Amino acid sequence: MSGSQNVEKAAKTAPAAEPETSISYQGAPGAFSNLACRQVFPDLTAVPCNTFAEALSAVHDRRVRLAMIPIENSLGGRVADIHRLLPGSGLFIIGEHFLPVHHYLLAPKGATIETVKRVHSHEQALAQCRDLIRELGIEAVVHADTAGAARDIAAAGDPSDAAIASSLAGEVYDLQALRSRIEDKLNNTTRFLVMSRDRVEPPVDGQPCMTSFIFEVRSQPAALYKALGGFATNGVNVTKLESYITDASFQAAQFYAELEGHVAERHVARAMEELQFFSSRLRVLGVYPAHSFRRQFRTE
């Protein structure tokens, strides 16, 4: 079977998506987001989307039940545009997942390390595998996403071309792995958020929780200091704080923030009340169970 026939077969055998039993993600089949869907929701049909906005809209329009959205990577930092898309999506965060990212050098059947002259992938994946690219002395070619690169080299079937992608992409497009675990650094991890149209919060029973929210303050001296003071006085740990200018006058800043705890817990509620007093806008995007990945780095 030729490479193009493998790609066509993968597309034709993809299961039909029923709204209540499906989850959307950005990228081609075999993307790391696809792998995250399989790990967390193995019983749901994973539906690929071209953009993050499309993946979120699919949930909002009830074409799928959930969306799996990457928000940050331990090496590459935050995923562009996600923090801007989340507030306007009309969705809620109901969970998080940490996915170890392991890259594979994939090639058409019959190719060898010696035949490969070019390697294709997303620019971040290429950057995370510089050592191997330098060792092999091959040309790096940027693609929109890792799985899309795997799909393209499978269709072309040229032994001179390889892709850096997930092991799942190799399975989907029937490619062989010439090298495995080729990332330069260990502990390369991507954090995902699970998005839902319906707000679902865990009970206040002592289990570790995370709260994600946005707020806005005027651009004036000490505005942010006053807004965040309640978290310090109430012993609430803010784990993330990122700012965005929201208007053409540059007079107001919007912040995306995350904290450890449940908004219904007394000390968190007091801190949020103080924040609301000093901010012109406050919206909770979700309260959800903290992933077990966080425990290995927690210090008492």
TrEMBL record:
UniProt GO molecular function: prephenate dehydratase activity
Annotated pathway: Amino-acid biosynthesis; L-phenylalanine biosynthesis; phenylpyruvate from prephenate: step 1/1
Taxonomic superkingdom: Bacteria
InterPro entries: ACT-like_dom_sf, ACT_dom, Chor_mutase/pphenate_deHydtase, Preph_deHydtase, Preph_deHydtase_CS
Catalytically driven reaction(s): prephenate + H(+) = 3-phenylpyruvate + CO2 + H2O
Record keywords, A-Z: Amino-acid biosynthesis, Aromatic amino acid biosynthesis, Lyase, Phenylalanine biosynthesis
Keyword Amino-acid biosynthesis attached: yes
UniProt-listed GO biological process terms: L-phenylalanine biosynthetic process
Residue stretches of biased makeup (Low complexity): 12-21
ACT domain residues: 212-289
Gene Ontology CC annotation, any one: cytoplasm
SUPFAM superfamilies associated with the record: ACT-like, Periplasmic binding protein-like II
TM region(s), chain numbering: none
Name under which the protein is recorded: prephenate dehydratase
Source organism: Oceanibacterium hippocampi
Classification lineage: Bacteria, Pseudomonadati, Pseudomonadota, Alphaproteobacteria, Sneathiellales
Gene that produces this protein: pheA
